[in-house]
Design goal:
By secondary structure, the protein is an alpha/beta fold. It folds into 2 domains: about 70 residues, Chemotaxis receptor methyltransferase CheR, N-terminal domain (Chemotaxis Receptor Methyltransferase Cher, domain 1), CATH 1.10.155.10; about 190 residues, Vaccinia Virus protein VP39 (Rossmann fold), CATH 3.40.50. Helices cover about 45% and strands about 20% of the residues. The strands form 2 sheets. It has a 7-stranded mixed sheet with strand order 6-2-1-7-8-10-9.
């Protein structure tokens, strides 16, 4: 059992470390997510963990953040945003970009499904419209968790992970089969993606310049309204004029509504920087 005082102290730590707000009655989540961290470090209580974190144990701090921020994800999650990206937005992005490659940011990319899905969309677009799409994309994929980024960079997935949204046709076209029923993303899909460690509350200098579109889906729901506002302001500053922001199906621009125009499409909403 986690007492309320320890839980409140841990919530404060998590908020200061990465901006995530757990809210009330999420003790069960802390227990389940941190079980391996407790066992690995010989800890028996949340109080013991908090005591160790006070002394600046960076490795332990990173493991706790990794455990609390790593989420299940899907290929082509919700389908509609990726269909709209491929069928409508990519042509606009290439036209605006001129001779350069459009730059896309997959924020909080987790184990890589989102950026690889975007790269597959770009590959399919290039085959349909080679005059535009043959330039390719530059995709920057970031996450706060260093361990999950290692998984993403490797691009190797078992059948269980692939069953979460990857069609048989795309699997055979864009993956190489390996041993033990695993599949690895093909080099031509990997080559357009750079994976980098980034905390959404910190500087965005690692992104390497302005962006044409940002995918930040099912992430901002974990932040306080104040932190959400700050992140959206920084994202707006990172976008080129009239660049796009795609949020999750249940998310809205909320406290930063004056920075973006809302565009409705069949299946959802995308935001365009003013």
């Amino acid at each position: 059992m986690i007492n309320s005082q320890s839980y409140d102290a841990f919530c404060e730590f998590l908020d200061s470390a990465c901006g995530i707000v757990l809210g009330a009655n999420k003790e069960y989540l802390v227990n389940s997510r941190l079980r391996a961290v407790f066992e690995e470090n010989g800890l028996e209580s949340l109080d013991q963990l908090l005591e160790k974190l006070k002394f600046g144990n960076h490795m332990l701090r990173q493991k706790v953040v990794d455990a609390m921020t790593t989420n299940e994800t899907l290929w082509f999650r919700d389908d509609h945003p990726f269909k709209y990206f491929k069928d409508e937005l990519l042509e606009q992005l290439y036209s605006v970009a001129g001779a350069r490659k459009p730059r896309i940011w997959s924020a909080a990319c987790s184990s890589g499904q989102e950026p690889y899905s975007l790269s597959i969309c770009a590959n399919e677009f290039a085959k349909a419209k080679p005059l535009l799409g043959s330039r390719g994309l530059d995709i920057v994929a970031t996450d706060i968790s260093s361990s999950i980024l290692d998984v993403a960079r490797k691009g190797e997935y078992d059948q269980l992970a692939l069953n979460r949204g990857m069609s048989k046709e795309r699997l055979e076209k864009y993956f190489d089969q390996g041993a033990h029923n695993t599949w690895t993303v093909k080099p031509n899909i990997k080559q357009s993606i750079q994976f980098k460690s980034l905390n959404l509350q910190d500087s965005y200098i690692a992104l390497g310049g302005k962006l044409d579109m940002i995918f930040c889906r099912n992430v901002l729901i974990y932040f306080s309204p104040e932190n959400k506002r700050q992140i959206l302001e920084k994202m707006h500053a990172q976008l080129r004029p009239k660049g796009y922001l795609m949020l999750g199906a249940s998310e809205s621009i909320g406290p930063a509504g004056e920075l973006f125009n809302m565009i409705q499409y069949r299946g959802g909403i995308v935001y365009q920087a003013k």
